[in-house]
Amino acid sequence: MLHPIYFLDMHLYEYEKLRYSDSIRILILHPCSDDSDPIICTMQYTRLSDVSLEYEALSYTWGDMNHRQAIHFYGGSKTLLVGQTCLDALRHLRQKSTYRLLWIDAICINQEDLLERGSQVRIMDEIYNRASKVVVFLGKHASCSEVLFEELAAADELIMAGKECDRPQPSAEIVRALEKLFLRPWFKRVWVLQEVCAKSIVTFMCGSATASFSALSTLYFGYSGHTKVSKMQWPLVLSWMFEDSGELPTTQLNLWKRLYESRECLATDPRDRVFAMKSLTGPRQSELNFLINYSQSVEDCFIQVAEYFLSARGPRILAAIRHPHDKVMPSWIPDWSQNLPLHDFYLYPRTPFKETDIEYKDSFTCNEDPMYETRKISDGQGRETLGLLTIGYQYAKVVDRSEEFCFDSIEDAEVQMHRLYYSLVNLRDIFLIPDMKGDCGMLGHLGKSIVQAMSLIQGSDLHTHLTRFVDGFYVGDRVAIGGEQIRNFEKALQQCRIILLDNGELAITPGSVRVNDVICIMPKTDAPCALRSNEKGAWRLMSGDCYIFGAVSMLALTHGGVVLDQYVGRNLDKLQDFLIR
């Protein structure tokens, strides 16, 4: 979100330095009765501590910065180029006869000054909290959005009057328009999460039309207590708007949780995936100020974040590496620029563990030895890198693998799930699936040995494995596959394979795992890991979040890493060191 700003060389607008830690700039947008006239502004330098300060904060997406347009200062003698989306927002925000005071990141922060960018990001939550209102600019009207905002305006009229929003269920046209609205870039950008979360007044703007959060929510979830009107999920940013930002006991855990949950959000600068979470980590968020540094590389940023987490979570951070990365950093460092989903059940407290739940009753504990350490090692090319030395045991080797699962959309995932479940009798017997006679494509996708292994598993257990979720459905009459089950299937298998191990068990791993890779179990982790050895005795982490079709992973779904500790405790004679680089 925080990109370089480009100026017109002949009329360069020059920023004055911000003098204090709470200094900000406010853009004064001059009024104009003619919408086609140039945008004229004045920059005001002020402080957040000024009790008389009033302004609105803009939340929007920068869009394509290759098509920049001019706004003018000092009556037009100084010019600044901004993105087209920013210019569109200014035109729609400009009033006919009164000045409008705005805070807009692209303009009010000197994007060329890396130190200033970092310092302003550190107080970003204060800037948005101090604003009298946050205006979300979603872009210009599209043909379908006008009818949607007419409906939202009618809902807002009832809401503002304190009346029950007892309107007719929205038409299919309005529902389609709502779904298209949720596909606009704003709903996926990572920075907008902290811009609107816990803000008292948020107005959504499309063109010049406006709507409240209440109107959007009431429409989506159905008027007068009806069920939601769309299969499309309620956007993450809207679900966070009134959520407590510090529900976990430490800043580290809150940051971990936020990074997990915002995994599918987008940022042009990968470092912003971390920086944008700061204000959402609870009352001690200032602990994260040291992380916000635009002078360091993306890799150095992620290494610093990993070291910060390692002190609190230890090897459990490996669960954030479901798919390997190709960045110039150790394989055990989580890459927060990836967008493929992670399994957030690793975030929460587990059901109390009873020894009777599992055949292994000996717990593996070693309070004096942390069972891991980091050490500086050579990367083989004359450079120094950070290795993770830990212990564990080799559970099994990969001997076969299916084709990779790839889903273009939730609808595509539904089709592939139906095809897979129809192909296997043990799944077809417990679910109502459309008739797909003659469609044997999924059998070839899986491969003969994997199909044979899957056919030996009870249908309800196999469904749990393929969705990585214990949904507790009743096994009796055949039931249709539900929307949540489809989403879990997509999340479990996106860009993954089903693999066969040399002990006869199956597992889900990322698509990059290949034959002869090793599935390992390590203490104080949340999931089995996939490792690949090299000729120098070190290992590359291919995944820290594998799922084994059996007691290991099924119990880990509800009991967490303690299950893996139990397995390690029964295999002390097989323990070995793993140096992961």
From TrEMBL:
Domain of life of the native organism: Eukaryota
Residues annotated as domain Heterokaryon incompatibility: 55-195
Coiled coil: none
InterPro entries named in the record: HET (IPR010730), HetReg/Transcr_Mod (IPR052895)
Protein name: Heterokaryon incompatibility domain-containing protein
Organism: Phaeosphaeria nodorum (strain SN15 / ATCC MYA-4574 / FGSC 10173) (Glume blotch fungus)
